[in-house]
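Minutes, methods subgroup
Present: GH (chair), OT, SY

1. OT presented the first of two proteins processed in the latest run. Sequence and structure tokens recorded below as shown on screen.
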Amino acid sequence: MEVDLKNKTPDIRYLYDIKGVIYDKEWLKTAPNLELYYMYRGLKKKGGLRYDITVIPSQMLGKEFVKTKGHEHPKNMGELYITLKGEAIYLAQKRKGKEIKDVFAIKSKKQGDIIIIPPGYDHVTINPSKKDLKMANWVAVKCKNKYRAFEKLEGACYYYTKRNWIKNKNYKRVPKLRFEKPKKSIPNNLNFLKG
């Protein structure tokens, strides 16, 4: 479902909004307060779900590829993403305190790729390319984003950098990163999004 964004006003996420989750602290010391990404929330609502679009222009945050701040999900609510343009990496982690019980990444390389973030998994979206990323998501209207764990632990359990994946040392236990593929179609039943 494509939506014309020309007359829509986005919420803008700036670098200083996410400075606590940036890997390259040395770069951050002198970096200007860049616009990182644009969130168009609540473009459509249907059956207790909300449709959003996020645009993440290509750029580097020092040694790290541009990313979202990352947010926590309630144990009973998931999220569904669709790549509209560009490439993305979705990093999803299941956390218990400072320990990660499971972590996986899904690389989306083409328009129409479908990514499912299961209930109870926190996640970050990364733009690893030289092109802008435009993605849509369906999430429960009543799902409220929380950022506390990412802020406290200075990001997700892995950072994606020019040198590849780097473990975040603020986590006590981080399992080996596994990789999954995007889904081919949207599931018939989206109740896992609603909780």
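2. SY then presented the second protein from the same run.
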Amino acid sequence: MSLVGARPTDQRKGADRGIDGRLYFHVDNSGKTKQIIFSVKAGQNINVAFVRDLRGVIEREKAAIGVLITMEEPTKPMVKEAAEAGFYKDESAFDTGTYPRIQILTVEQLLSGAQVRYPRLLEATFKRAPKARGAAVEQLKLDPAE
């Protein structure tokens, strides 16, 4: 989870309900939080069922995006199922991009610098300072001779 900046879920005994980690983000200044659900699968037997399960989890949890992290390259049916999940589109004025609703990343891709695609609105975090009014502000000069 550290490769993607997500919080791991509580690892108590029992079912994890298909969630290995979560990442939260904001799409505007309203304070409304969206989430990305992560599912990690290792082993040689990854298949399209894992993508279907993740799709069900993000719908149940009302998450914006789901990410499946695997050790192996995804199969063609997995890529097709992920594509059929559609896109997350933010309706805020700050972001006009669309992001795959289900993303499949390998550990190799993450180690090579690949990132989860979601709205990153750093410029919306800070308010812009008001412009100075009236006469121009006189800038003081430092004179090393004084």
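Chair's summary of item 2: The chain has a mean pLDDT of 80.
Next meeting: continue with the remaining queue.
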